[in-house]
Design a protein that fits this description.
The chain is mainly α. Helix content is 82%, strand content 0%.
Length: 410
């Protein structure tokens, strides 16, 4: 069960590892188009899978697209968005994720109700995967007319096209100033990945840490096993699918709140507030499982946990890791950080059934609660605030000549 749920995340890890290089060479737009192809192939292939091995292969291909998109999408958005609304724009990436999760669990619930358990076991699950072709085709169609990243264009020596895109986004006066900043930033960057392990080692390590911490509290296995979690709390199968829809609605609602807050309250503040809610929620979920308490209380607390993720780390993590790397190596820096995110997510999915079996539901959720507590401590001590800074200012923040800026920001 853990491998069937977690195998796609192996594809995510591989997709992350190569996405930065692909995006740096082909551009963000072509990289996203390739992701759409992976999504469509995976959904169609799984529908016709005749064995677990075939199922896993198609899941891996879908995972390649997910992993690559998780690097390229926030990177692309951060590079085309005006500074004043960059946090909100990158939050739209997370909003797309949670809207997709809601659509998926809603469609799954409707398909699940089309037949009995036997029909769902043999046929229904195939239709649940095939439904993914629709958003894959929509995504592919919508990325074709999109503009290319001006920072990638500038890096490739296509200055006129870059200025044209910046003018469309910011207006001519701001565009010329930002173009000059990008050029100056590119001049002081070598563009070698070795820079990530020397000059920009600190943002590299912080990005890896933050990405791993986003997953350590258990958000990926929670969404992967939502019906199982509610069934173990006493809900019937149909009710468990309906409760999964409720949780996804909460996820969407609080992501919308984060969209409003991220450029006002700041990224670090949202992470600390949201993760505190997650810590308390799973601490109590573990207690209710321990005393065989109310299934309704478990539902409310899982919804609370997901709300904390939605307005906290679920949004702010993507914003920060899309901001902290210099332009020439941003793709590869995000690849490394996001690979860490999916690696921890895969371990969560793979280990969740084993944790349930060996630690019980109470011990499992207490472990996730401890992960949230660790996140609070490390973020409070180590992560700086990036709100209100241009990408070039953040790059100077890490560079040797920016030591004065670093001391003020910290």
């Amino acid at each position: 069960m853990g491998w069937a749920a977690g195998c796609a995340l192996i594809g995510c890890i591989v997709g992350c590892a190569f996405a930065g290089t692909v995006a740096d060479h082909l551009g963000k737009k072509k990289g996203l188009a390739l992701c759409a192809v992976c999504f469509a192939l995976s959904s169609g292939g799984i529908f016709f899978a005749a064995s677990l091995h075939q199922f896993v292969i198609w899941r891996l291909i879908g995972g390649l697209g997910i992993g690559a998109a998780s690097v390229i999408s926030p990177n692309y958005i951060a590079e085309i968005a005006p500074t004043r609304v960059r946090g909100r724009c990158v939050t739209l990436y997370q909003l797309g994720i949670v809207a997709g999760i809601l659509a998926a669990v809603l469609v799954n619930m409707l398909i699940q109700r089309m037949g009995d358990d036997s029909w769902n076991t043999t046929v229904g699950w195939r239709w649940m995967f095939l439904a993914g072709i629709v958003p894959a085709l929509l995504f592919g169609g919508m990325i074709l007319p999109a503009v290319e990243s001006p920072r990638w264009l500038m890096k490739m020596g296509r200055r006129d096209q870059a200025v044209s895109v910046l003018t469309r986004v910011n207006g001519s006066a701001v565009a010329m100033r930002e173009a000059a900043e990008i050029e100056n930033s590119l001049m002081i960057e070598e563009g070698h990945i070795s820079e990530l392990f020397s000059t920009f080692r600190r943002p590299l390590l912080l990005g890896i840490m933050l990405a791993g911490l986003q997953q350590i509290s258990g958000i990926t296995p929670v969404f992967s096993f939502l019906p199982e979690i509610f069934r173990s709390a006493g809900a019937a199968t149909g009710a468990a699918f309906f409760q999964s829809v409720l949780v996804s609605l909460i996820n969407l609602f609080f992501t919308l709140i984060a969209l409003w807050l991220v450029d006002r309250a700041g990224r670090k503040t949202l992470i600390l507030a949201g993760t505190t809610v997650q810590f308390l929620s799973f601490l109590l979920v573990g207690w209710f499982y321990h005393v065989h308490g109310s299934g309704l209380a478990v539902l409310i607390l899982v919804m609370s946990f997901v709300a904390g993720h939605a307005f906290g780390n679920g949004v702010a993590c993507w914003v920060i890791i899309s901001e902290i790397y210099p332009t020439k190596v941003r793709g590869r820096g995000m690849s490394i950080a996001t690979t860490a995110l999916w690696l921890v997510g895969y371990l969560g999915n793979q280990l969740f059934p084993l944790m349930e079996k060996n630690l019980g539901s109470d011990g499992t959720f207490w472990c996730f609660s401890a992960g949230a507590l660790l996140t609070i401590i490390l973020v409070a001590l180590l992560i700086p605030e990036t709100k209100g800074r241009s990408l070039e200012e953040i790059t100077r923040f890490w560079a040797p000549q920016g030591q004065t800026v670093t001391s003020v920001a910290d």
